Amino acid sequence: MSEQGSESPDAAPAGGGPDAGDGRRGTGPALEVESLFLRRGDRVVFDDLSARFPAGKISVVTGPSGSGKTTLLRVIACLLRPDRGRVLADGHDLVGLPRADVREFRERVGMLFQGGALLDSMTVFDNVALPLREHTRESEDAIRRQVHTAFRAVGLDRVDALLPGELSGGMVKRAGLARALIGAPDILLCDEPFSGLDPPTVRRVEELLVDINRRTRATLILTSHHMATTRRMADQLVMLLEGGALTGPPETLIAQGDSQVLDFFDQPTEGAEARRAEARG
Ligand SMILES: Nc1ncnc2c1ncn2[C@@H]1O[C@H](COP(=O)(O)OP(=O)(O)OP(=O)(O)O)[C@@H](O)[C@H]1O
Ligand SMILES: [Mg+2]
What ligand has the least distance to the C-alpha of 42? Predict the structure, then answer.
């Protein structure tokens, strides 16, 4: 295996998820990374990182800028191969699978990229239709219906003919999410879905993601710095810190009182309490 985290071939965003056939869907898979080691350039990003993402639940990955949140999503989506370690979906290791199996797995994954990653020269409609046109042989009529269903789901209207450059930041985010939802993925990975949005839109995207998770039972992993939102929506929090990850429900991690966790949630730490007591005399 290569010494450095290597980009997998065909690293195009996937999203043409499976058709359940009988119209019913199961719960998305349990995802897990185990003993990951990954180097990018001369920097070790993961040194023995392990974390679990429960089936059909919402996990939020947080941690300082540069701690590897985006990298972790890319590893889970099989867009980036770790130098060592395992990436498991329902217990099956995805690292080192034959290319055809990786492609099949990727078709179950919807991904919202940090920054949207829409193609600038293509209309918003064509951007969202792209995964279906690339991964399925569906008719244009069927594609149009699915794209409009996805637009409705994210609250976008009359954007078909617009170019991404003609959308506001919040609309770009929602168009990226519409593309991630195309094909009914059972794994939804959202990189910073709330960044750059105004508070009402944050709330709206939060409700949308929770609703998608409850309705589709997809396993949802998102990265975020919005701790109030995280506290409301996360079943599981994975906090990337120096020396590994802390994992658990947000309230459990807060109750454990680790100062790095409390700092993130802007909760008083013992030291801060003592300083305040001192200030009060
Ligand atoms: N393509 C790349 N080549 C070399 N190093 C990279 C590459 N992508 C990321 N890195 C490095 O990997 C580390 C983790 O980056 P990553 O983007 O995963 O962080 P992040 O937690 O998502 O940060 P942010 O909160 O700013 O989005 C950083 O040190 C970054 O410089
Ligand atoms: Mg990032």
Answer: 1
